[in-house]
Amino acid sequence: MKFKINIIVFFVLMFSTGGNGQDNPSITLGNGFSLMPKVIYISSATLQLFPFSNDLFERSITEELSGGYGYGIAFRKKLLREDLSFGLSTEYIKIVDSELTQTFDNDTVRYRARVTEELSMIPIELTGYFNIPNFSEDLKIYLGGGVGVYFGDRKRTVINVESKTISKQAGFSFVVLSGIEYYFTKAVSMVFEMRFRQAEYKVRSEYPVSNIKINGTTFPLEKNLNSKIFVDGLKLGLGLAYNF
Length: 244
Description:
The protein is mainly beta. The protein contains 2 helices and 16 strands.
């Protein structure tokens, strides 16, 4: 989290120095309307395994998941002034981490079983964009922020036993972003963007069985899974915008 805050402060300090003394900024972030498909990379996610436990130690147990990929689309519209735009975007993001393990033991034996976590998330975000002045006509740099609602699912597989979703609850988060947009023509531009958010949602799921057999030994398997998921890693997006 400290790393994310340092990056945000760096961008604000670096870009804000170029905004003094210019009263008529150029038209940026597209000529009125902009439609942009994009591909996405998420650096990491965090899974809180027992968020509703009465035990403080259990509530603090988390799993760190590797990054994932996705795709999305964003719609932007210039409003109020030439350097200010507002946008609505949505994405589909998937993270699959098969490098996790879970320990099963009894009085005589202990096994570490391979676990696969699969997360999927669909965010809907409303954001504002402010273009930083004093750059070239072809290259625009912007800062922004907004709010989002996040819908998602989780699937956990232990050996060959896969969890089934019972219910899902969406979450909300603030968004901070920065980006660079390069114009090939007035109508076509390429956008590279970074977003920082604490996207979260909740999933209640369960295993179809209450026991699992490993190498001939049967172990109890906790049937109910109530989890809170944070897709809070750095989000990088690369898109091709059509401006009209």
